[in-house]
Amino acid sequence: RRQGRLQDVHVVITAGGTQEPIDPVRRLTNRSSGKMGYALAAAALQAGANVTLISTTGRQPPFGITYVPVTDVRQMQQALTARFAASDIVIMAAAVADWRPARVAQEKIKKQPGQETWQLDLVRNPDIIAGLGAQKTHQFLVGFAAETQDLIANAEKKLAAKHVDMLVANDVGKPGIGFGAEDNAVVLLQSGTAPQYLPKAPKTTIAAQVISAIAAARTPD
Ligand code: C5P
């Protein structure tokens, strides 16, 4: 039996960048490495939680964490929806594609002789976290906001619009932090409280701080 501040708490975390198929050999994706999500899963496990990691990276998480591999947004949404009622904390650390190819070609798309340009039609993906925000009952919902400008203002908007309980705002325009980096620096936003600045540190350290802040916000002591 695990001990800790999140003992018997069910935590579901998403990690990585979604991959949207174009044809059998091509995918539309982004620069998310999944490191922050994996660090959060390890920190939640350390705090005694029952942890499920829904990940696009193909990497097996440490022993003790339930692993659900997915690739695209709709698989990720399905995996979350199936577990939402039984979860207490959901952390959407994944970088979810806003768009996906309108059609997935069954065969590899070939370039035509003389063809110099190619238009790819895209359609909007569902906003997974906004959907969960609209249907949440007891769940504590945590979103991420990767921004390159007006970090706090843009993140404040997402906090309200998506009905999340905490937003982890990440300035991905700065060198050495964010996508792919070992380190991160974030601001935690919750409605009705002042922004909490977590200065640059390894993602494992930031993850432990985020998990503590979530535990404190759910059950203040
Ligand atoms: O609006 P934006 O994509 O910046 O919001 C980021 C947050 O929303 C992240 O927590 C991300 O996982 C989530 N998101 C989502 N579904 C989308 C797009 C983003 O759940 N289609």
TrEMBL record:
Gene Ontology biological process terms in this record: coenzyme A biosynthetic process; pantothenate catabolic process
Region described as Phosphopantothenate--cysteine ligase: 11-221
Residue ranges of domain DNA/pantothenate metabolism flavoprotein C-terminal in the record: 6-215
Catalytic function, reaction form: (R)-4'-phosphopantothenate + L-cysteine + CTP = N-[(R)-4-phosphopantothenoyl]-L-cysteine + CMP + diphosphate + H(+); N-[(R)-4-phosphopantothenoyl]-L-cysteine + H(+) = (R)-4'-phosphopantetheine + CO2
Keyword annotations of the record: Decarboxylase, Flavoprotein, FMN, Ligase, Lyase, Magnesium, Metal-binding, Multifunctional enzyme
Family named by the database record: In the N-terminal section; belongs to the HFCD (homo-oligomeric flavin containing Cys decarboxylase) superfamily. In the C-terminal section; belongs to the PPC synthetase family.
Listed name of the protein: Coenzyme A biosynthesis bifunctional protein CoaBC
Organism listed in the record: Schleiferilactobacillus shenzhenensis LY-73
Lineage start: Bacteria, Bacillati, Bacillota, Bacilli, Lactobacillales
Interval of the full protein contained in this chain: 180 to 400 of 400
